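Intended use. Records like the one below are meant for learning the mapping from a protein sequence to its folded structure. Do not use them to infer anything beyond what is encoded.
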Amino acid sequence: MRAVQVLTTTGPTDIAVSDVPEPEPGPDQVLVDVHSVGVSFPDLLLSRGEYQLRPETPFTLGVDFAGTVAALGPGAEARFAVGDRVAGVGGYGAAAERVVSPLDSTFALPDALSYDEGAALPMNYLTAQFALDERAGLRPGETVLVHGAAGGVGTATLQVARGMGARTIAVVSTPEKGEFARAAGADEVVLLKEFRDAVGELTEGRGVDVVLDVVGGDAFTDSLRVLAPLGRLLVVGFAAGQGIPQVKVNRLLLNNVDVRGVGWGAFAMARPGYMQQQWAALEPMIESGAIRPPIGTTYPLTDFGRALIDMDERRTLGKSVVRVR
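Structure written out for the chain above:
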């Protein structure tokens, strides 16, 4: 079968589509015919050998996916049947014609969603749910500010926050991205260069309850400044590539605000059953239409490297998806 492989950790220009043996499901695993694969930031880091997971080369990329169950390992028949539509997530290995997925990280894909939308769900939306529920303790009626709001995690956060009853403010770098974020569900949209003043006006000087930041960089300090009393700044990533921001802790003390790390993968994968609980929390939002992953660009399997380069150069909107079949 075909698979997108890292042969040397020299970046996305050097990944290749190779023929590899088909996997077989073991106990409590399903074999999935992959239709679509999400393009994720961990894929980019894995291709460079910069991720916390460092598999031995050659290895197959692909974090989240959607497809149909092709075969069942022992014990899996209690959850799925051959032909069921599913989505799933793992550390790597899904960018292939078939993938083996553990039951714990495999989810029934609602009929209302396409395979592309299914591949856009697991990592981004489970991260958003973890960030807002587990780490922020978001309550209905609170206001959430989202940096990088036109990207995959950003749009997921906008939708999950609204599904939890919050008001959302999207921060974007261009008007085009602002239109995309508004279509994804943002209540308000502001440009990055003026977001501090804009937030003051939108909240009548109170500030926001939660900031979710996947960007980092120069805006970090102003993100602290726009927090309301008891506000929480969630650190998800550093897409700006400007180094790790520094926090002056006296600012936290004086304003009664928090900075909280969001490391969903390591947390969830160490807790059997946790991802299934998260998915159950998302299902009502999917059924109501609050969650509908916005798909940006789609690519063929042979262009997985191009998809990573486009993401790295911040040319993408929403979640990019690679179609396998």
